[in-house]
Amino acid sequence: MVRGTIAITDYDWYRRLLSEPVDEVNFWKPSSTRAFYAEEFSPFIFKLRAPHNAICGFGFFARYSRLPDWLAWETFGVGNGCASLEEMRIRIHGIRQRIRFRGLAPSEIGCILIVNPVFFPPERWVAPPKDWPPRTQAEKKYDIRDGEGARVWADCLASVAIPTADKAQRPPAFQRYGEPVLVVPRLGQGTFRIGVTDAYARGCAVTGEHSLPALDAAHIRPYRMDGPHEIANGLLLRADLHRLFDKGYITIRPNLRIEVSERLREDFDNGHSYYPWHGREISCPANRREWPEETYLQWHNENVYLG
């Protein structure tokens, strides 16, 4: 069985994103009281609520995270389906009032992070599953290789099979060679940031600092220099350490110990607060697969670090 998710969304969220060239979106919930689970990069299909009751697009599930609204906005911007943080907060407040949310304010929202989203114009909307319960507001899992799940998924793929003459309109998740062919989904900048933040349990790998506004998800090998948006190519660092790391004044050796360059002292006649960290082992994610990859660390040692 290959399972995909069909989840209900608002028309305003869809309408905003239909015209936005984004490669990742935040399918947010007004509270984080119920987590969402799915297989990584499994299909995630958007269904409009009444009166539209139609499938309006899809993407691929990257991860679920509980985030303060400001961080969700800072990370995904209009990918939240809103024009501003103020608009997003108004919509969150309105939904919470309707559902009589009892949590403390401000509180976290539930963020289902979707990569490679595709949104259909109204003339290419897809009919929802025939067995969809009319009153259901929660997401549902479907086998996309059998029954109504397979029919909906096939219709979604057909809906992005744009004629060759319209190449410029092709969604970024697809190419066309007779039939639509999926490009392998990958994390974007935003999902990378949240993935690294959560992997390091929201604490700086060097100092242990847990104040979210002070933390950055750093690429070990920068994206502009062929470094991928992969958690193993990331470190969660306090903002000042991130800048020093990018400038080459500190690095992480393949043995996962921090090294502080003498150039920091030579160039600025300073650095007292950083040299005590020299030689200390960094804190790594609980998941061994998310630890910094040796090849990326070696690249930084050889190409960025000032020695």
Provide a descriptive summary of the structure in words:
There is one protein chain. With 307 residues, the protein is of the alpha+beta class. It folds into 2 domains: 180 residues, Hypothetical protein (Archaeosine Trna-guanine Transglycosylase, Chain: A, domain 4), CATH 2.30.130.30; 115 residues, no CATH class. It contains 8 helices and 12 strands. The protein has a 6-stranded mixed beta sheet. A two-stranded antiparallel ribbon has the order 7-8. The termini are far apart.
Instruction: Supply the CATH class of the largest domain.
Output: Mainly Beta
For the termini, the CA-CA separation is 52 Å
Summed up, the helix count is: 8
Mean pLDDT: 90
| Number of E-state strands | 12
Task: Report on the biggest sheet.
Answer: 6 strands, mixed
Please state the structural category: alpha+beta
> What's the SSE pattern?
EHEEEHHEEHEEHEEHEEHH
Amount of beta strand? 15-25%
Shape: elongated
Give the % helix: 25-40%
What is the rounded Rg?
22 Å
Largest beta sheet: what is the strand line-up? 2-5-4-3-1-6
Which CATH architecture of the largest domain is right? Roll
- Unreliable parts: 163-181
**CATH third-tier fold name of the largest domain:** Archaeosine Trna-guanine Transglycosylase, Chain: A, domain 4
CATH homologous superfamily placement of the largest domain: Hypothetical protein
